[in-house]
């Protein structure tokens, strides 16, 4: 498991795609900073960015691209065979892959947090100390609430990627799922609590009264993560090696 995880990290840092995706994410944050509306200010820029371009739809779509490369392409191109033909258990293999995918998502979220703060500070300036601490705690809370739902979305897409061997089809399907999730949340807000990845769009729900606690996002996300991971382990055990 750890060997697979380390190998994926080595591949990530040596890949141009990783740096390109990070650069595009940073650029999108800067772009949003240049087109801020009248309601955006120093207090809400980070959350407006998170609830805007970052999660609708940049990070979810980027994660689809990452998962397709890590799972679908790795299998369809035959490179997965070298790992599956070793003494590494297939269950450990998929766990290592899923942990790496989660790490990728966390990196994107960390970049979003850091650069949203930097861009917001440059554009709007610093606020008072007490206000700055209050905003920081609130922003950390918002990002924390969204992380587990994002990982549940990644677990769902990873499972689908194991079932579909065509990269183009998987990218199209993954992006389609992102669009459908966004539409479902827009049409019926209550579904945000119960669908895989629904909590990715929950930034505007933090500190607001609603029919359910925000902790429900984490509980539902953990259930989905465990379920999709277990099913993925079963799928990979039955998967033939591409030679």
UniProtKB/TrEMBL annotation:
Listed name of the protein: Membrane protein
Transmembrane helix among keywords: yes
Keywords of the record: Membrane, Transmembrane, Transmembrane helix
Keyword presence, Transmembrane helix: yes
Species of provenance: Clostridium tagluense
Top-level taxonomy: Bacteria, Bacillati, Bacillota, Clostridia, Eubacteriales
Transmembrane segments: 18-37, 57-77, 98-123, 143-164, 171-195, 215-236
The organism's place on the tree of life at top rank: Bacteria
A UniProt-annotated Pfam family: ABC2_membrane_4
């Amino acid at each position: 498991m750890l060997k697979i995880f380390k190998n994926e990290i080595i591949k990530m840092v040596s890949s141009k795609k990783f740096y390109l995706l990070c650069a595009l994410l940073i650029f999108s944050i800067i772009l949003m900073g240049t087109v801020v509306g009248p309601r955006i200010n120093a207090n809400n820029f980070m959350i407006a960015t998170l609830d805007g371009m970052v999660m609708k739809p940049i990070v979810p779509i980027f994660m689809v691209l990452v998962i397709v490369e890590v799972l679908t392409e790795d299998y369809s191109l035959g490179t997965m065979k070298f790992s599956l033909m070793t003494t590494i258990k297939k269950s450990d293999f998929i766990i290592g892959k899923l942990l790496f995918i989660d790490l990728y998502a966390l990196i994107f979220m960390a970049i979003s947090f850091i650069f949203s703060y930097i861009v917001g500070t440059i554009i709007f300036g610093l606020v008072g100390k007490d206000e700055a601490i209050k905003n920081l705690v609130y922003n950390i809370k918002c990002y924390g609430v969204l992380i587990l739902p994002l990982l549940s979305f990644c677990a769902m897409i990873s499972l689908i990627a194991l079932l579909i061997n065509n990269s183009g089809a998987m990218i199209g399907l993954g992006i389609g799922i992102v669009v459908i999730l966004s539409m479902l949340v827009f049409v019926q807000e209550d579904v945000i609590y119960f669908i895989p990845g629904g909590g990715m769009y929950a930034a505007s729900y933090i500190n607001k009264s609603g029919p359910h606690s925000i902790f429900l996002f984490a509980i539902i996300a953990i259930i989905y993560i465990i379920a999709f991971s277990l099913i993925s382990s079963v799928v990979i055990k039955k998967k033939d090696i591409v030679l």
